[in-house]
Specification:
heterotrimer; A: 309 residues; mainly alpha; MetI-like fold; 2 domains; C: 279 residues; 78% helix; flat
Chain lengths: 309, 329, 279
C-alpha cells in the first residue's frame, strides 16, 4: 500500500512539472494569438518577442498563462489535452461503434501489437536457438557472441528501410518485415539472458546428470532449460519492450498500413502535437500491458515449477 | 545470420523477375504519404477506372524513409512516382528509370521566407539559414544555389543549409530564415500555424527559372521491352490520367476519396481539400505526355550546377513517349 | 558467376572447421582470432553472394565496394562522426548518466521516493522514447543540442533505475558496520554504498552506450544540419548511394563497439574487486 502512495506521489509530481512546463513552452504562441485578438502583450513587437527567452516572456505576460493549456497546436500539450485526445480516439470510438476506424488508436494499437508479437515470437525463438547452440558449441560461443553484441550498435532505424526494401523484393508481407525489424532488437536480451540461464546449473548438478549417464540432450531438457526459466522471463520482459520499440521504428518506414509509428510520423508531419503525445501514450500503455502480462506468466510458471518467489 | 540472409536474398532476386509480370497486378509506389498530391491515382482506384482497364492496382504510400527508386529496384513496385532530378540522378547511379508519363505540368516547389529576416530577393540569401528537404529532393535547390553562385557549406559568402524535417517548424521557431514548401502543402501549414501571407516572402522555382519536373511516372526501362508489361502500363497511364482529370474537375470529392484512403487517419478535410485545389493547378495543362521542352529545361538546370552538378552528362533514353502515345490516342 | 557462390561457401565450411578446432585450444590469441575469422567469413560469403547472383548494388552493395567508399570518404565520415558522436551522443550521454546518478543519490535518503521512482523509472525505461525525438528536435533546434537532448532522455531512466538499485545493494551487515564506525551518511555513501553500487552503475553505463549512439542517429532523421551520421544515412538512401550508407553503418558499429569496450575496460579497472571481474 505504501508503495502505491509513493508511486502516486511521483506521478503527481511529474504531472505538476508537466503543467508548469506548458507555460514557458507555449508562451510564444499564446502571445502571438493574443496579439492577433487585439490584446495587450509585452513586448508588443513580434520580432522582439522571438528573441526573448521563454521564461522571461512568460514572466512578463502572466495574464496569458490561462491560455497556454488549450491551444490547438501547442509546443507542449497539457496533460488533460492528451488525455482527452486519447479518450476520444479510444473509448470515444468504441462508443460510436467505430472502434476499428482509421482514426481510432485502438486500430493503430492493434496493428502495432500484432507486429510486436510477431517480432517477439521471432526474436524469442532465434534467441533461444542461438543461446542453446552457444552453450553447446565452444566455436559458436567464441565466434558468434562478439558479433551479436556488435550487432546492437548498428542503429536499427538506419537499416530498417533497407530491410523493408529487401523483404519487399522477396514479396514478404509488410507485417513480417516489421516482425523482422523488431526481432533484431528483441533477440538480443533473450540470447544474453538465456546463455546465462543455461549455464546457471552449478557443477554439482552437472555432475549429478553425468552420474546418471544423461546425454547432452537430456541434460538440456531436464536440467539446463528448466533452470534457465527465471532468466528467460527476465529477458522476455526486456525483449517485449524492445520488440515494441522495433515495431514502432519499423512503422516509420512502413507507414502505409497505419500503426502507432505511422501515427507518430503523420502527427509530426502535420505538427499535430496532441496526436503525437497520445500515440506515445498508447505505445506506453501497450508496453505496460505487455510487460505486465509477461510478469503474470512469470509468476504463474515459476510457482508451478517450484521456484521460490 | 548474414550468410543465410544473403543466400535467400540472392535466390529471390533471381526469381523476382519472372513473378513480377505474371498477372495484371500493378503496384504503384508513391513518393510521400497518402495525400491529395496523389489524388488522381486514388480517384482512379476508387472510381473503378483501373478496374475498367482490367488492372488490379495496389497503391503503396511512401514516407520520409522511402526512396521510390530503391523500391522499384528491389522489385517492390512496378511503377513509381518520382521527381525528375532524383530519377535522373538514380539513372546515373545505374538504375534504368524511364519516365513514361508526366501528369504534373508545373512545379509546386517554393522557398518561403519570413519578411522580418530581411529577405526580399534571392540576393539577400547570403549568410542566411535555409531549410531544405533531402533524400533526393535537394537537387532542385542545389542547382538553384549553384546558379546563384552560393556555396551551401555555410560561411560568409554562402548559405547555411538545414535538413528540414517533415514539417515547417524551423520557420515557425525562427531556426531557419526560409524553408522549402510546396504550393499545395507546407505553405498552408505555415498559414495554419498562424503566420499571415503578409509576413512571408515566397520564391517559386517556376518564377526563378529553375523549375524541374515533379511527380512523373517512372518504370524500369528494360521492363518496357516486354509487350505485356508495356500494355499494362498503357492501361495504367490511361486510367490514371482519367483519374487526374476527374480530380481536377471535382476537387472536393477527390479530397474525400484521399481521406478515405489514408490509413493513418491523421489527415484533415480542410487541408486535403485545399491541397487538391492547388494540385489541380499543377496538373492542369498536362495530358500525361512528357513535354520534351520541359525535360530539356530540367536537364539543363541539373547539368549547369557549377562545381558539383547533380548529373554529369545529359542522360539518354530517360523518357519514352511509347506509352502515352498509345494511352492517349 | 557460380564460382563466386561455391567458392565463398567452401571458404565458409573450411573456416568453420578451423574455428571448431581452434576453439578447443586455450592460447590467448585464439580469443581474438576465432571471432575475427568468423567476421571474415561473413564478409566473404556476402561478397560471394552479391557477385555470384549479381545483386543490384542499390539494394545491397558488396563489402569491397563499401570498403572502397569507406577509404575514399574518410574526411566526410570523420566529420559526421564528430557531429553525431562527439557532439551529440557523448555530451548527451555524460549529461544524462550524470543526472541519473545524481538523482539516485538525491532520493537516496528517502526510501519513500525510491519506492515511487523505481517502478515509474522502470516503466519509462521500457517506453519507445525514440518517439520523443521529433518533439525534442522541435524544442531544441536542428543542431547537435537536440540530439544530445534525445540522448539525455533516452539514457536518464535506465541509468536512474540501475543507480537506485545499486545504492541499495550494500548488505545490512555492512551498513551496520559503518554505523558502528560512527560514519556520517556522507561517509557511508562515499565509502560503502557508492563503491557497492559500482557494478550496477556500470551495468547502466554499458546499456546506455548503445542507446546513446542510436538516439543521436535517430534524432538526425527528424531534422539536422547537413552533416552527421543520421543525416548522411537518410539522404544517401534517397540518392541510392548504398555503399555510403553501409560505410556509415560500419562506422557506427566500430564506434559503438569501441565505446562499449571503453566503458567495460573502465569497469574492470574500477570494480576489480567484484566477483564478476575475477576469474
Amino acid at each position: 500500500m505504501k508503495s502505491v502512495l509513493a508511486i502516486l506521489t511521483v506521478v503527481v509530481a511529474l504531472v505538476g512539472f508537466w503543467y508548469a512546463a506548458c507555460v514557458p513552452m507555449n508562451i510564444h504562441e499564446a502571445a502571438m494569438q493574443a496579439q492577433r485578438a487585439g490584446e495587450e502583450v509585452t513586448p508588443a513587437e513580434a520580432p522582439e518577442r522571438r528573441h526573448m527567452g521563454r521564461i522571461s516572456l512568460a514572466l512578463k505576460n502572466t495574464g496569458l498563462w490561462s491560455t497556454v493549456f488549450s491551444q490547438e497546436r501547442p509546443q507542449l500539450p497539457a496533460p488533460h489535452q492528451v488525455a482527452q485526445e486519447f479518450w476520444k480516439t479510444t473509448w470515444g470510438m468504441i462508443e460510436r461503434g467505430r472502434a476499428f476506424s482509421k482514426r481510432s488508436l485502438i486500430l493503430h494499437g492493434w496493428i502495432t501489437l500484432s507486429a510486436t508479437l510477431l517480432g517477439f515470437a521471432f526474436g524469442t525463438a532465434l534467441g533461444i536457438v542461438l543461446a542453446v547452440s552457444i552453450v553447446h558449441s565452444r566455436a559458436m560461443d567464441m565466434s558468434v557472441m562478439p558479433w551479436i553484441i556488435a550487432s546492437q550498435t548498428v542503429p536499427i532505424l538506419a537499416i530498417a528501410p533497407m530491410i523493408v526494401v529487401v523483404l519487399a523484393a522477396l514479396s514478404v508481407d509488410d507485417i513480417v518485415a516489421k516482425g523482422v525489424i523488431s526481432m533484431y532488437l528483441s533477440f538480443f536480451p533473450v540470447v544474453v539472458g538465456m546463455v546465462k540461464g543455461l549455464r546457471s546449473p552449478d557443477a554439482m548438478q552437472m555432475d549429478q546428470m553425468k552420474t546418471w549417464n544423461a546425454t547432452r540432450t537430456e541434460t538440456l531438457w531436464k536440467l539446463r532449460l528448466p533452470s534457465s526459466t527465471p532468466y528467460l522471463f527476465a529477458s522476455l520482459k526486456v525483449g517485449v519492450a524492445a520488440s515494441l520499440i522495433g515495431a514502432v521504428v519499423a512503422e516509420l518506414s512502413l507507414s502505409s498500413n497505419g500503426g502507432l509509428g505511422a501515427r507518430l510520423l503523420a502527427g509530426s508531419y502535420y505538427g499535430q502535437t496532441v496526436q503525437i503525445w497520445s500515440a506515445l501514450f498508447a505505445a506506453a500503455a501497450l508496453a505496460a500491458v505487455l510487460v505486465w502480462a509477461i510478469g503474470v506468466a512469470q509468476k504463474v510458471t515459476l510457482k508451478r515449477m517450484g521456484f521460490a518467489q | 545470420m548474414k550468410t543465410i540472409y544473403g543466400a535467400v536474398l540472392a535466390g529471390a532476386m533471381a526469381m523476382g523477375a519472372s513473378v513480377a509480370q505474371a498477372a495484371d497486378d500493378v503496384t504503384l509506389q508513391l513518393k510521400w504519404v497518402t495525400q491529395a498530391q496523389f489524388g488522381g491515382y486514388y480517384v482512379a482506384l476508387d472510381k473503378g477506372f483501373y478496374e475498367e482497364e482490367g488492372l488490379n492496382v495496389t497503391i503503396k504510400p511512401g514516407g520520409p524513409d522511402v526512396a521510390p527508386a530503391q523500391v522499384i529496384a528491389g522489385g517492390g513496385a512496378d511503377v513509381v512516382l518520382d521527381w525528375m532530378p532524383s530519377a535522373l540522378a538514380s539513372r546515373e547511379k545505374g538504375l534504368d528509370l524511364v519516365n513514361i508519363a508526366q501528369p504534373f505540368k508545373s512545379s509546386g516547389m517554393m522557398l518561403t521566407c519570413r519578411k522580418d529576416s530581411g529577405i526580399a530577393t534571392p540576393a539577400d540569401f547570403k549568410g542566411k539559414t535555409l531549410g531544405v528537404w533531402f533524400g533526393g529532393n535537394e537537387y532542385p535547390f542545389l542547382s538553384w544555389m549553384n546558379k546563384l553562385g552560393y556555396s551551401t557549406d555555410g560561411g560568409e559568402d554562402g548559405v547555411t543549409v538545414l535538413k528540414q524535417g517533415f514539417n515547417v517548424d524551423p520557420i515557425l521557431n525562427g531556426q531557419a530564415d526560409c524553408v522549402s514548401t510546396m504550393t499545395y502543402n507546407e505553405y498552408w501549414q505555415i498559414i495554419d500555424a498562424g503566420l499571415t501571407p503578409d509576413e512571408l516572402v515566397v520564391f517559386k522555382y517556376e518564377d526563378q527559372g529553375v523549375a524541374t519536373l515533379e511527380d512523373g511516372i517512372y518504370v524500369i526501362g528494360s521492363n518496357l521491352e516486354d509487350p505485356a508489361f508495356a500494355d499494362k502500363m498503357v492501361r495504367f497511364v490511361r486510367a490514371s490520367m482519367k483519374g487526374w482529370k476527374w480530380a481536377e474537375e471535382n476537387p472536393d470529392d477527390a479530397a474525400m476519396i484521399v481521406l478515405d484512403n489514408d490509413a493513418t487517419g491523421a489527415q484533415t478535410e480542410k487541408h486535403q481539400t485545399r491541397m487538391m485545389r492547388e494540385i489541380a493547378k499543377l496538373t492542369a495543362g498536362s495530358n500525361g505526355a512528357l513535354d520534351v521542352a520541359d525535360y530539356e529545361r530540367t536537364v539543363q538546370s541539373l547539368l549547369s550546377g557549377g562545381s558539383d552538378p547533380v548529373i554529369t552528362k545529359a542522360p539518354e533514353g530517360a523518357w519514352s513517349h511509347a506509352i502515352t502515345d498509345k494511352a492517349l490516342n | 558467376m557460380m564460382a563466386w557462390v561455391f567458392g565463398s561457401l567452401l571458404f565458409w565450411a573450411a573456416a568453420w572447421a578451423l574455428n571448431v578446432r581452434l576453439s578447443r585450444l586455450s592460447a590467448p590469441w585464439v580469443r581474438f582470432f576465432v571471432p575475427a575469422l568468423f567476421g571474415m567469413t561473413v564478409i566473404i560469403v556476402w561478397e560471394g553472394m552479391v557477385r555470384g547472383f549479381g545483386v543490384n548494388p542499390v539494394l545491397l552493395p558488396a563489402p569491397s565496394a563499401i570498403a572502397a567508399t569507406f577509404v575514399g570518404e574518410i574526411p566526410t565520415l570523420w566529420g559526421d562522426l564528430v557531429q553525431t558522436f562527439f557532439k551529440g551522443a557523448l555530451s548527451g550521454y555524460v549529461i544524462g548518466c550524470t543526472a541519473g546518478v545524481l538523482t539516485a543519490i538525491a532520493v537516496d535518503r528517502s526510501p519513500f521516493l525510491q519506492r515511487g521512482l523505481l517502478p515509474v523509472g522502470n516503466f519509462v525505461a521500457a517506453l519507445p522514447i525514440v518517439g520523443m525525438a521529433p518533439i525534442l528536435v522541435m524544442w531544441f533546434g536542428f543542431g547537435w543540442q537536440s540530439k544530445a537532448a534525445v540522448v539525455v532522455v533516452m539514457v536518464f531512466f535506465p541509468m536512474l533505475v540501475n543507480a537506485v538499485e545499486g545504492l541499495r545493494a550494500s548488505e545490512t551487515m555492512q551498513r551496520d558496520l559503518m554505523h558502528t564506525y560512527a560514519a556520517t551518511p556522507g561517509q557511508g555513501l562515499r565509502k560503502l554504498r557508492l563503491p557497492a553500487a559500482m557494478p550496477f552503475i556500470f551495468n547502466g553505463l554499458k546499456i546506455c552506450t548503445t542507446l546513446a549512439l542510436i538516439g543521436a542517429i535517430v534524432a538526425e532523421f527528424f531534422g539536422s544540419p547537413i552533416k552527421g551520421m543520421g543525416f548522411r544515412i537518410s539522404t544517401e538512401v534517397g540518392r541510392l548511394a548504398l555503399d555510403m550508407v553501409w560505410a556509415e553503418i560500419v562506422v557506427a558499429a566500430i564506434v559503438g563497439s569501441a565505446f562499449y569496450g571503453a566503458v567495460a575496460l573502465a569497469e574492470r579497472v574500477i570494480t576489480f574487486w567484484h566477483p564478476s571481474q575475477r576469474g
